[in-house]
# Entry
Amino acid sequence: MDMKQIGRRIRSAREAAGITQEELAQAIGCTTKHVGAIERGLKTPRLDTFICIANTLNASADYLLQDFLEQPSELLAGEMASVLGLIPQDLQIRVLKALRAFAGRR
# Structure
C-alpha cells in the first residue's frame, strides 16, 4: 500500500476543511511533525489515529483509501456528494442540472 497516496488524500481533505496541520494535530492528539509525516507518506497512522483523522476532517475512510479499494465508481459518487455538500444549495442545483445534461437526462 502506497502511504504517499493516502497522505496526499489526507492533506487534500485537511486543506478542503480549512484546517491547519497544527489544528489537526491538536484534534487527534499528536504532534504537527507527526501529521506532516503522515501527509508525506513517511508514517502510517494507527487505526485509531486514522479514524480520528477521518472524523476530524469529515472525510470518509472510503475517500481516504479510494486508490486501494475495488469499487471506485461508488467511491467517486461519495466523494462528489461530499464536495457538493461544501457549496451553497443554489450552486448544487446548477451542478445537478449540468450532470443531468451530461448524462442525457432532464
User: Anything to note?
Assistant: The radius of gyration is 16 Å.
